[in-house]
Automatic annotation (TrEMBL):
Keywords noted in UniProt: Membrane, Transmembrane, Transmembrane helix
Highest taxon listed in the record's lineage: Bacteria
Transmembrane segments: 12-32
InterPro entries named in the record: FixH
Organism: Alteriqipengyuania abyssalis
UniProt-recorded name of the protein: FixH family protein
């Protein structure tokens, strides 16, 4: 024997359906606002006009063959290991929080005997993005990477 489908049943189906849609929208919005670590430009048109120049500069930097790998010690010091970099190279970095935070820090590094670079001051805990610049005369390599 079948039960009659009433207006109350239909209202329940509608509330449940829209409830699922609203819950998914709130979840996706929270992921978008809390997890985006991108960079926002002031003027997207001007940025698009400079894009080919940025690509050419990136190719020049890639041609150096220098590799940088950053990590953080337990006491907050940033350590950068390099590969194929000349011994006379110097390193600087700017640490910034991902989008939504205004804090930025400029880091100075000291080269160790083993070739690694160690920051002069510790970096606070949390998510950071490093923009590292390894320079030797007129050659340089800029690498932007998240810091775990």
């Amino acid at each position: 024997m079948m039960r009659e489908f009433t207006g109350k049943h239909m209202a329940g189906v509608m509330v449940a359906g829209f409830g699922i849609v609203v819950a998914v929208n709130f979840y996706m919005a929270s992921l978008a606002t809390n997890g985006f670590g991108g960079v926002v430009v002031e003027n997207s048109y001007v940025a698009s006009q400079k894009y080919n120049g940025w690509l050419a500069e990136a190719e020049r930097q890639e041609a150096t063959g220098w590799q940088l790998d950053a990590s953080r010690t337990a006491d907050g010091l940033v350590v950068v290991e390099t590969q194929n970099a000349p011994e006379t190279a110097t390193l600087t970095a700017i640490a910034r929080h991902p989008l939504g935070h205004k804090t930025t820090r400029t880091l100075a590094f000291t080269r160790q005997d083993d070739g690694r670079f160690v920051a002069d001051q510790p970096l606070d805990a949390g998510r950071w993005t490093l923009r590292m610049t390894l320079s030797d005369g007129d050659r340089k390599r800029v690498v932007e990477a998240p810091l775990p």
